[in-house]
Each structure stands twice: as C-alpha cells, then as structure tokens.
Amino acid sequence: MRFVITGEWNRNRLLQTIVTLYSVYVGGLWVTNALLYFSKMGLTPSSVVSYYRGNEEQFLSPRSYPGMLEVAHFHLFAMGLLLLVLTHLMLFVPLRNGTKAWLIALPFLSAALDEGGGWLVRFAHPAFAWLKIAGFLSLQASLAALVLLSLWSVFAGSQRNYAGMAPAPGNEP
After folding, report:
1. Which is more confident, 6 or 140?
2. Helix axes 97-123, 65-90, angle to 10 degrees
3. Whole-prediction pTM value?
4. Disulfide check for 171: which of 15, 131, 150, 167 has CB 3.0–4.6 Å away?
C-alpha cells in the first residue's frame, strides 16, 4: 500500500519483479486453460454438449456428478484466489472507479459462467452450451486484460490518475 500512496508503484523494481513473475505464472495458466478447453471441446455448442452429456458416436461418456463435483471443488477455490489477487491489483491501476468496478466484477462473473455453464449443460439443458462458451471466452479475455493492465500500471501507469489520492509530493502537475 505504501507504494501506491507514495507514488512508487511504477518505480519500485522489486514490485515490478513480483508483478512480472506473477504475470508469467498467470500467463501459463491462461495458455494451459485454453489448451485443456480445446483438447476436450471447441467453440461450438455441439462439442460442449458432447463433452458434458456424452456422445455414443465418439465413445464419450457423460460427465459424472462426482467427477464434476471434484473438479468444481478445486476450481472454485483456485479461481477465487487467483481472481482475488488479480482484481486486487486493479485497485491500484490509474483508471476511473467505474472502469475498475467492471474490471473487478467481470472476471468473477465470467468464472461463475464458465464453471456453472458445464453443470447447466449436463444437468439442465443442452442449450446452456452457449453460456459455457461465453463464460470461457469472457474469462480468458478478462484474465488477459487484468494481467496486461497490471503490467502496464506497474511499468508505465501514472499514479496521478489514481482515484481518491492526491499526487505524491514532487509529482504535482
């Protein structure tokens, strides 16, 4: 917090290193998330339905309730922590509060759609496949946006625009 208040957010090399290394790990998650998704299904509703509800022609069994519950158990915990850290960094990005609110809410909503969409396809109706696809795409887009904005803010962002904070001494316009 001191780095934000004093205006050192984009001048502290250790903080830049931490955010950069964290971003590399999140980038790896982002890539593997896409690879896992596309190894199981595509961006067509039929591929999503086949994955969750099974497909006799492709010898795919429907996803089981215990199997989906086990995956959801880990995903809900891990995604919650990931999004907590990434959206926390948005508090310090020099953007309007309304923009920050969207950048914080959208990833959580996207993760819920991504996780819940599969459950709805499997146990409610195949038409929810579009929801699963939308959840996946919006989650990937929002994760990329959060990482890129965090990196931009740490390296190039000006703390003068940080809402609710006076410029640091010596940084007045």
Report:
1. 140
2. 180
3. 0.83
4. 167
